[in-house]
Here is the input.
Amino acid sequence: VQGHGGGPEGVAGVGGVAPTGTAAGAAERDIDLIVPSTRRGIFNPRPRPMHLGLPVITPIALESVAVKVDINGQVAVTELELTVHNPSSMPREAEMLLPVPDGAVVRSLQYDGTGPEPTARLLPREEARRIYDRIVRSMRDPALLEFAGQGVIRTSAFPVPAGARQKLRITFEQVLTANGPRLDWTLPRTESLAGSVPWTLHATVRSEQPIASVFSPSHELSTQRISPASITATATSSTLQHAGSLRISVLREAARGAANEPTTTVFATPDPDQPGSGYFMMLVNLPDTPPKHVAAVPREVTLVLDRSGSMQGPKFTQAINAAERVINALADGERFNIVDYSDSIASFKPSPIAMDGAMRSAAQAYIRTLEPRGGTNIRDALVEALRPAPVAGTLPITLFLTDGRPTTGETREAAIREAARNANAITAGKPKPTSRRVFTFGVGLDVNAPLLTALARDARGSTAFVTPDEDIEVAMSTVMDRLRGPTLAWPTMTIVEADGQTRATSIVEVMPAELPDYFAGEQIVLTGRYRSDAPVTVTIQGELLGQSTTLRMPLMTQQASMTHAFVSRAWATQRVAWLVEQIRTNYANVDVRTDPAGKELVSEIVRLSTRFGILTEYTAFLSTEPAGRLTATTMSEAARVTTQRTNSIRTGGAAVSQDLDASRKAAAPSAAGVAAASQRSNIVVRFAGGQIVEERLPVQNIASRAFFQRGSQWTQGDLIVDESKPADAVLTVGTDDYQRIADELIADGLASVLALPGEVLVRHRGKNVRLVNVVAER
Here is the structure.
């Protein structure tokens, strides 16, 4: 911060006001305050009046931050390397404030420049808060209050020569608090980070006991296991450009140390609008590999190949190569068959046959005789592949490949799904142990994406879409490599209330609604809402590595924290994906603009998208009248218009994109993708005066709320239809009333609202409050 004079600690004053104890007329000096955790990196007050003839000085810029973390047991050592640049033609002095978890200890400070070496010391959160308040009152910019409640590391001033770049390395350590088998490391950063400063992260995690997993609930990590008790993790600037504190969670195996036992942990966050309620996320880490004494289940694979005329050219060559790879991947004794189809159906054998050397050669010779021609009869090909009863003791799998939509025979989606369910012994929507798991592959963009997704989901499989620039062989071999048999098969979930009864009253809307099979190394991720503080136990029953098992996971909501606000967004993202799936699966030929049940689904998507800021093709429909006023009526109308238009797209690139987006959101809270569930996006407004138009609104997620920006005002999502109404109170930064509300927002875990520039309309303790966050000139 540019200021005048030096205080007792060698710290510049702010806003042109000399610090207490500084004599008037003391020598002036300019100091830039670097705050790497803020959205701008540099905070500068309004420039003081310049003497005539003095040059305008450009402040020091923060160019990059590299984070290295070494977590050894419960001790974490964090090093930040900051690269700063002085673009001006004059030497500058800089100083740094680094918000850190309270209790951190400064280990070292290194400076590679010339001149006096800076010093650093940790200020506890009470002293940090006094510094923040002083800066806020001087600059009339409350963004720093976002870090109230944290400690801060403060350096003395250090010189940066004109035009030079310097590196500052600061290392601090802290003892991580254990939450059962989980350790959490956090580096505070603003929720409003714009991503202009590139960050990188490299973490090394070591433990005296085996580590089940290392993941981030805030940003996507790439992990590599070095040993059972050592894992490295990295994140690049592209993944760290998203706002929010950096978080790493270490899930250690249970102290009893039995290998291949599931490890569980729970995150919970309260709902600030409903006391006693909130959201939870349960993670169950499954074994990476089956133990040696567990024999692999032999597979029975039926490969269904599309040989219609549209497959001609490179696609068919790739499909044949993929088929050969599947054949070669099967061990002797495993069973196999090929069903090939166009407008007619044929097969290699009447039913799957045991694989051996002679049969492998015969199967390869058979597929080389196939030629693409004719139409696409999906229904009859599926029925033929699913018709034979699987051999007992095998894992029955069907790999279904097509590059088109049904053009001959039965073409209705609902009828094709029903025929497949009947042939696969799926009754009342429930597969049986003898049902085949169906994995579908859509090649190119002319496929009926919702149909392929539904066929796979009905039969506990998954869908892969192979775009024109991708290779079929790679997609199919990836699926085959993981299908060595599920680690946890046929899981079912039960909620046990505090009185021992099995009913779901204390927790509701658990996602996923139905549990799929889980394979080696995968996580079970459950999200949901809790409605009371009563203890609840979630049980999952299934076959773990071939043995019947019951996992019991207590949900202790007393440990809920606003620091886990990502949980609410993760749940909402999964919930929206599920609602979209219901529309795409069950309303292919229904007009959701008039159907009562369809309208109800759309209304729920609207509610969740406006509260949590979740964008899909179905949530891009906030509506506005020509005068710019939003109303609930026009929002609902626009939502139904957009949904009907979007849902009518069943083939082509847009349809594939919709299904890929829904799949990513449904799986978002996995160890690799919690961050994706809570990222910022733009909402598209698509309705004005009866006409479809487009308007992009920046959206900012804070705690369990979303705020939308229109002009200079941010509006809480569920208040957007009332944004034109007078607020109950209008408070300007720097006033006593503003400070009082700021303290309450900080106590409620909503301090990041203070970092939004401009005006903010927020629902606070039962009232609509308009905060005037006047940002200083920069």
